[in-house]
Every structure is written in structure tokens, then in C-alpha cells.
Specification:
Layout (H helix, E strand, L loop, with lengths): L10 H8 L4 H15 L6 E2 L2 H8 L3 H15 L1 E3 L2 E3 L1 H28 L2 H5 L5
Helix pairs in contact: 2-4
């Protein structure tokens, strides 16, 4: 499971790309994105039953709302589904988190230099 608690979301791009969807289809699209975000690599199984269970929907809702969204916005490969923009955003978020972590560790090492501990009295 991804430990990234956030996903960048560009409202203008989303509206431009999804304005033609029904409300139900747009909701399915968002749920698919949110579900994929929590799976390493942002891919989900290309398995209707898995998707139906995860999205808590009926087979009819799947056919009506999810199938058109998958066909338009997701890539199928090797039994997996993914949305290209989301994978790019996920990679950027991981890179940013790693860069911030390295910077934080460097700052902590500089702040808490070894000589601080060498002069401390131990019990």
C-alpha cells in the first residue's frame, strides 16, 4: 500500500478532460483513481469482480459507469489497469518525498552534530 497520503489534483485539467462524463461516470473515475493511488505503481487488476468489490457497486453500475471510463482513460497491460497521468504524478510525489526526507536528515545531522553527544553526561 502506498504511504503517500495525498495526490496532486489539477482541477482545470480534470474538468477539461471529463466534462462529457455523467456524474456517475465521473464518480467511478475518481474512485478508480483513489483506489489505484494506494497500490504500488498505481495499477489495479483488470478484473471486473475485483473492481466491483472495491468500488462497492453492482454489475449494472460497473457496466454503465466504469466500463466507459476504463476504455477512455486507462491503459490495459499484463492484466493490470492504470491511468498514465496518475502514474506520472505518483512518481513525482515519490521523488519529492524522497528529496524532502534527504534534506530533513541532512538538516538534522547538521543540527545535532556528534560533539553535542560527546559532551553529554551519561547515566
Amino acid at each position: 500500500m502506498s504511504d503517500l497520503p495525498y495526490m496532486r489534483f489539477y482541477i482545470g485539467d480534470h474538468v477539461r478532460d471529463t466534462h462529457h462524463l455523467t456524474l456517475e461516470q465521473e464518480g467511478a473515475y475518481m474512485r478508480l483513481l483513489f483506489t489505484a493511488w494506494h497500490i504500488p505503481g498505481c495499477t489495479i487488476p483488470d478484473d471486473p469482480q475485483w473492481i466491483i468489490r472495491r468500488l462497492h457497486i453492482s454489475r449494472e453500475e460497473y457496466e454503465r459507469a466504469v466500463v466507459p471510463v476504463l476504455e477512455e482513460f486507462f491503459t490495459r497491460d499484463g492484466g493490470r489497469l492504470w491511468q498514465a497521468r496518475q502514474r506520472k504524478e505518483y512518481a513525482a510525489a515519490v521523488t519529492s518525498r524522497e528529496r524532502q526526507s534527504r534534506a530533513g536528515k541532512t538538516a538534522a545531522r547538521q543540527r545535532w552534530k556528534p560533539e553535542v553527544f560527546e559532551n553529554a553526561e551519561l547515566d
